[in-house]
Amino acid sequence: MCGIVGHVSTGPVNQQIYDSLLLLQHRGQDSSGIATADGETFHLVKTKGHVREAYRTRDMRNLTGNMGLGHVRYATAGSANNVDEVQPFYVNAPYGIILVHNGNLTNTRELSDELYRIDRRHLNSESDTELLLNVLANELQSRLPGDELTPDTIFDSITGLHDRVEGSYASIALISGLGMVAFRDPFGIRPLVLGRREGEHGRDEWVVASESLVLESGGYELVRDVAPGEAIVITESGELFSRQCAASTRLAPCSFEFVYLARPDSVMNGISVYESRLRMGRKLAEKARRELTAGGIDVLMPIPDSARPSAMEMAQVLGIPYREGFYKNRYVGRTFIMPGQKVRKKSVRQKLNALGTEFKGKNVLLVDDSIVRGTTSKEIVEMARMAGAKSVTFASAAPAVRHPHVYGINMPTRAELVANGRSTEEVAAAIGANRLIYQDVDDLKDAIIGGTDITELDLSCFTGEYVTGTVTAEYLAWLEANRTS
User: Which residues are part of the catalytic machinery?
Assistant: First the structure.
């Protein structure tokens, strides 16, 4: 999971990109990068850490130009500590291309071999973003009819890219002499939205971003989501071209975006993230009503922040008092996306503090968005008991995470997932809860896409069914042997 944004404006874009990345900071905290185009010259600043602390006045002064893109990273391929893998990535031929990418490619071994043996391209990192960039550059190079670069040439090149690349990818690129390009994989797994506003002299200004909240904050109209397999070209003068570039497409957005990753004030594929989380709470309450003894719960509490909408709705449906028993230190990052189990475990206590008066002598129902590794959940249950809880029932707004997620979320190995190979009762014991209630897969699906025209979701981490159809047992074994989180 990463956050990406691209701006084509009538004035300098450096501050716009910076402000957009602040809004997308929840999508990645390892590193960030900003690139701008000023005529035929690219300017690039890449840095580790959070956006607000990373950039200096001199950096912003150097980022001149009316067109640019930005990225916040949470590493799912390569190394979180390798500065060379911070995005954006750049190649100087053809023309000069800078690219950012959100997602995960699943045929990196084959692509790396092809790029070396056939395309004669050198890769300097383990990042799949560098792979994606070089595939695009090679496809573009092979189709250039002469000196003129047109949107049609770009679209043909992205058609070739779709034919070669497997996995998830929402991408934005700057191409010198042309403008900005945005494209999305044929399954639309990772989100990408397009916005427009009127700039100077009535000229259109454009933004492409991972989440719609970027558009709303900048005063842009939400035009639409970039369609699966579609590519969009926006010239330096603000003219927009688009084309469907994939032979076959299916919209199957990632369910975990709605469960946890996206901010609740975003709209993805026409679905309000906040409203979907309320529906998750309603569905979970119906299951809890069937499984819990009437009167057995004194108080319901959310694990802040992404579980709060589900918990509020669940409390209302069940008629259980809602309380805020955990208080959050907002200056500690999201524990799920922190690298390393030891760091995650330590950060839970730094991030949350339990209010004893809300727990003492009570039968408590704790509601979280999901349980992945179980590290955070176990620490939270222990905190509730230390604060005096009589019993702790734990409820997850998502189903049991039993399978690796290979499309851009940091769940690469089954051994790390607390629910893999365990029953619900065994997971409850592992996290120290008296009881555990998981959302059902069908209920989650209905909570997200019920009543919409969307018929499919990527639910692979819950079901083990991978929507691209190219994820094999051999690939999963290789992934587990070569990637840790």
Answer: 2
Task: Write the CB contacts of 158 (distance below 8 Å, at least 6 apart in sequence).
Answer: 136, 139, 181, 183, 231, 245
Amino acid at 299: V
CA dihedral sign of residues 432, 433, 435, 439: negative
C-alpha dihedral sign at 393, 399, 404, 407: negative
For the chain, give the number of residues: 485
Mean pLDDT, residues 225-239 taken together: 97
Query: Residue 328 CA to chain centroid, in angstroms?
Result: 22
At residue 15, the pLDDT reads 97
Q: What is the mean pLDDT of the chain?
A: 92
Question: First vs last Cα of the chain: how many Å apart?
Answer: 13
Q: From CA 229, how far away is CA 240, in angstroms rounded?
A: 17
pLDDT, one tens digit per residue, over 6-33 is: 999 999 999 999 999 999 999 999 899 9
User: Is the separation of the CB atoms in 358 and 297 below 8 Å?
Assistant: no
Judge if pTM exceeds 0.90.
yes
Counting residues of the chain whose pLDDT is more than 90, the rounded percentage is 80
* Cβ 87 vs Cβ 46: under 8 Å: yes
Q: What is the pLDDT of residues 143-155, one digit of tens each?
A: 887 768 899 999 9
Query: In terms of pLDDT, which residue wins out, 443 or 410?
Result: 443
pLDDT tops 60 at residue 250: yes
User: Distance between CA atoms of 45 and 5, rounded to whole angstroms?
Assistant: 15
Rounded distance between C-alpha atoms, residue 282 and residue 37, angstroms: 48
What's the whole-number mean pLDDT along residues 299-328?
94
Token couple for 113: 């071999």
**How far is it, in rounded angstroms, from Cα 158 to Cα 243?**
10
Burial bucket for residue 92 (CB in 10 Å: 0-12, 13-18, 19+): exposed
Pair of tokens at residue 257 = 């975006």
